[in-house]
Amino acid sequence: MSKRILVVDDCPYVADASARLIAICGYETRAVYSGRDAMQQSLAFAPDMVLMDIGMPDLDGYETAARIRHEQGNANVLLVAVTCQAEDEDKKRAYESGFNLHVPKPVSLTTLCGLLALLNHEHCTQPTTAGPGW
What we know:
Largest sheet: 5 strands, parallel
Strand content: 15-25%
Strand order of the largest sheet: 2-1-3-4-5
Helix content: 40-55%
Shape: globular
Distance between the termini: 27 Å
Radius of gyration: 13 Å
């Protein structure tokens, strides 16, 4: 069974294009455009990884991550903040909210490769700067 990846961004073009690109690599993907939809799909779709924007209007990524992680009991899902908010304070807040990694936009193909390799517990041959320990 292929790994499942949920892509969350309030810009439908970004979410859909990212999900399609990842699907081409053999992953099962879904794209949603709000924090509330992400919470619903984290239960219905049971993703292995969630790539989520922080700055969303209805429920921001910080709150959505905290709810997915703590209220829904998804301790094992890999939560990745994919955002333009890349200051040290933003990263700290992301980790405190339950994100495992913080990746600044725009995401390079090298970084995406690293994220997918991490999901598969593989060694990525190209260096990334996605988060602590990379």
